[in-house]
Every structure is written in C-alpha cells, then in structure tokens.
Amino acid sequence: MSSAVGPFSLDRMVRAVERVRDRLLRAAAALNAAHIPYAVVGGNAVALWVSRVDDSAVRNTRAVDVLIGREDLDTVRKALEAAQFVYRRVGGIEMFLDGPDAKPRDAIHIIFVNEFVREGELMPNPDVTDSEDSGEYRVISLAGLVRIKLTAFRDKDRTHLRDLIDVGLVDPTRLNRVPPSLCERLRSLLDTPGR
To answer: Residue 104 in contact with residue 90, Cβ under 8 Å?
Structure first.
C-alpha cells in the first residue's frame, strides 16, 4: 500500500516541527500546573541536550515522550485531557493524542519510571527525580538519558547516542559512570564513530 505523495514544502516541514514543539510545551504546562512530577525523555530530550552545545546538530523528532510515575497516571490523564489531549492505549503504550482525530505519532507517549519498557531490557527507566528544570519543562538528566538510550539500543537510540557523542556530551569518561551492564554498548559506539 502506497501513500499519496504531495509537493515539496518547506512550510509543511516547519509546521510539523512546530506542532511537536507546541505539543511538548502544552503538555509540560499542564503537568506543571497540576504539580505532577515528570521529565521529557526520548528524541526531544536528546535534541534539548544537543542544542545546549550546538543547535546546528539538533535532529528533529516527531515523538513527545514523557516519563512519569505509574501511580500518577490518573492525575496525568486529568491534566492532559483538560489541555485537550485524548487518552488512548495503543499497542500496550499509554498515550495522549493531540486531539480526537490525531494519529498515534501525534501524541504524548508515556514511559513509566523504574519499569522496563520491553521484556529482556538490561535496566529499568530512571526516576523523574533524575531530571533538570528548564523553567518551561523538566528534562531527564544527561546520565538518565544515556542510560535509557543504552538500555533500549534500537537504531534510533544508537543514532541519538551518536548525536550526544558528536557534540562532546558523551565521551570515554562516561564509561566509568554507566552501569556495567551497559558499558559494552557505549564502548561499541565510542569505538565506531560515524557508523
């Protein structure tokens, strides 16, 4: 099955990025107003960290991933629904669609603290206390982000880790600071730059 291909459009490309930014800020504002502990994780967290060093190295991402405590899900649901997000559980993932007609990729994806995302992972997610406050939103600490990305270690996670390596946020000194079970994964990325 193929999709209809529209014309090239820089405006559409920019609007797509702006929608992700808007979704992140609206969700953060709702969670902040409700005093719910959370942290931005995933590709947006990588982009936020990379932008602190070199904004020309930032990679756009479509997903907004938010780390919360499972015990806060009902409160999060009330806060995000009040901000016009629509709760759904799709493929075992808790998410909040950006409106009733939105696709799952146009959503806030929920990740739970101290839990494994997939069976067989080496480490559970960090806690939201392992985060930093930017004023508008909370973002996972660099150490927590590296741990999440090394644990998941899918293609996109390795790409995100390489982005952090490329701007100097992650280097061989970090090998002493990651859990031993993840050390070899990080070493393999440091030893094969650009792959």
So the answer is: yes
Q: For residues 41 and 145, give the distance between their C-alpha atoms in angstroms, rounded to a whole number.
A: 7
**Domain-by-domain residue ranges, the chain?**
10-141
Burial 24-35 (b: 16+ CB within 10 A, else e): bebbbebbbebe
pLDDT at 195: 64
**Whole-number Å distance between alpha carbons of 173 and 134:** 26
Give percent of the chain with pLDDT exceeding 90.
77
Whole-structure pTM value: 0.92
- Cβ neighbors of 151 (< 8 A, separation 6 or more) are 117, 121, 122, 123, 125, 182
Q: Give the type of residue at 180.
A: P
Here the contacts of 55-58 (C-beta below 8 Å, separation 24 or greater) are: 57/163, 57/166, 57/167
Interval 66-84: pLDDT, tens? 999 999 999 999 999 999 9
**Residue whose structure tokens are 């970090």:** 174
Across-strand partners of 94? 89
Q: What is the pLDDT of residue 192?
A: 87
Q: Which CATH architecture has domain 10-141?
A: 2-Layer Sandwich (3.30)
3-state SS class at 179: coil
